[in-house]
């Protein structure tokens, strides 16, 4: 069975460098066999490719792709902390969508993250989820994603 690293490679995907925190927090933290990430915005090589609110400034299709980028960034944070190959399953996804006042399709945007995780982890990606519309996100990002994943308990660094 291939590792998650090999699976990503076979999909022509690579984990980016973990984004430096924008304030006083860490990108990911482990408690027992769970790793939770801080919210990850769709930075690409340290740059936010587009800003604004979904429904006015940002098209839904673009926002879905940005949610995929956020999910990769979150996986990179997990990888830096414990190694992506230690992931047992995806437990929870929380997505925040900077939304125009009349935009109500936040679930479709967050599907970008959920579907990427399903492509990588298959049935190990079945997760609970929240998709929340917000007025604004850090750096005027259109979307932000948090992950909670279960990891193997015998991995170095287990509490």
Automatic annotation (TrEMBL):
Organism: Rhodococcus opacus M213
Domain Endoribonuclease L-PSP/chorismate mutase-like: 7-148
Signal peptide: none
Xref: Gene3D superfamilies: RutC-like
Record InterPro entries: Endoribo_LPSP/chorism_mut-like, RutC-like_sf
Database matches in Pfam families: YjgF_endoribonc
Protein name: Endoribonuclease L-PSP/chorismate mutase-like domain-containing protein
Transmembrane regions: none
């Amino acid at each position: 069975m291939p590792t998650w690293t090999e699976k990503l490679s076979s999909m022509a995907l690579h984990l980016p460098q973990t984004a430096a925190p924008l304030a006083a927090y860490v990108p990911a933290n482990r408690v027992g066999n769970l790793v939770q990430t801080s919210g990850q915005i769709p930075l690409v090589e340290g740059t936010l490719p587009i800003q604004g609110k979904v429904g006015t400034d940002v098209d839904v299709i673009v926002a879905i792709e940005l949610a995929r980028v956020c999910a990769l960034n979150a996986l990179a944070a997990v990888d830096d902390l414990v190694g992506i190959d230690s992931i047992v399953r995806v437990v929870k996804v929380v997505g925040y969508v900077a939304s125009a006042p009349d935009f109500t399709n936040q679930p479709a945007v967050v599907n970008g993250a959920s579907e990427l995780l399903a492509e990588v982890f298959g049935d190990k990606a079945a997760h609970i989820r929240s998709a929340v519309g917000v007025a604004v996100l850090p750096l005027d990002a259109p979307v932000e994603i948090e992950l909670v994943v279960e990891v193997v308990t015998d991995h170095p660094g287990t509490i």
